[in-house]
Amino acid sequence: MNILFxxxxxxxxxxxxxxxxxxxxxxxxxxxxxxxxxxxxxTDFTRQLTNFPCTLDSLDxxxxxxxxxxxxxxxxRKQIVQHQVDIIHAYxxxxxxxxxxxxxxxxxALFTSRRDMGLIYQGKPAWIYxxxxxxxxxxxxxxxxxxxxxxxxxxxxxxKTRVIYNGLEEYTVTPDSSxxxxxxxxxxxxxxVANIKPVKRTLDAVIAVTQLIEEGHNLELTLVGENQDTDYxxxxxDVINKTGSSNRIRLTGSITEPRRLLPQADxxxxxxxxxxxxxxIMEYMHAGLPVIATNVGGNPELVIDKHTxxxxxxxxxxxxxxxxxxxxxxxxxxxSLGAAGKSLIQNEFxxxxxxxxxxxxxxxxxxxxx
Length: 370
Description:
By secondary structure, the protein is an alpha/beta fold.
């Protein structure tokens, strides 16, 4: 197949949706497909990127309502027809508008992706995407929760929606003795891997752990992720300092491969306001960690309560404290939840499945004849 990906921009290929795009393209190329990637705009990362599995170009579109965007997309459409592109797949808000508007033809199949619980609609209301549904063969989501949510928001029929779970690549988790993220030998060690910003509700975890420490529990918490909101990070640091917990709660900043740190932890936390299908939870589970997560988005599709982890309601610090204490006090429960989670990831959330399921959708006659 001749496949073109249209993506707003790439700031990294180390994690999240950008990592999934990279692994999908890499896998499709390995399967013998002719793949190209068009970015609406470059970032510092992609300007310096030299080792990518397919050709990568920037369209230099900074505003989708500009005359430049109109000219550029018309030219891209001509190229698609000339090169007989079979599949168009768009990711992120601007591309998911431009691709249906300009790139759908009678001879290609066009897909757009949704990967979160509504962030795509910030500044671009859902009705815009709903209007474009007739020029979209299917909308691919990374969890059933996201698919159900966007179907309702965009008034999509069941025939227009598909679910393909994120794929987690195999990784041999070995302890990294060169970078120790906890101080105590006998403490229960919690890790939260997420960029630090309000939607991740990192402060909830900090408040819960500081309160438990003040109540006499031997806990440590390490926060791994980029500091993306200066004021929010300052509030977190202020809570840590005011409670005298700086020797128990640590911020590492951004880490290139956080999975190498997971063997140092006993419990993985993710207490976000919103999630699509969390790579972080998948990585916790693959490492055999029991998980405490908020009951939002696709989290319940991974964290099966009391089987692969514990679910709490978002913003409920008392529930979070109770869940932490339940796991901290029961080593056998931690082990059983961790083992069940690891089995789930290995069996159902692989890169091989990610690639094969996209291929199946791309070639589906039922989709092309809708």
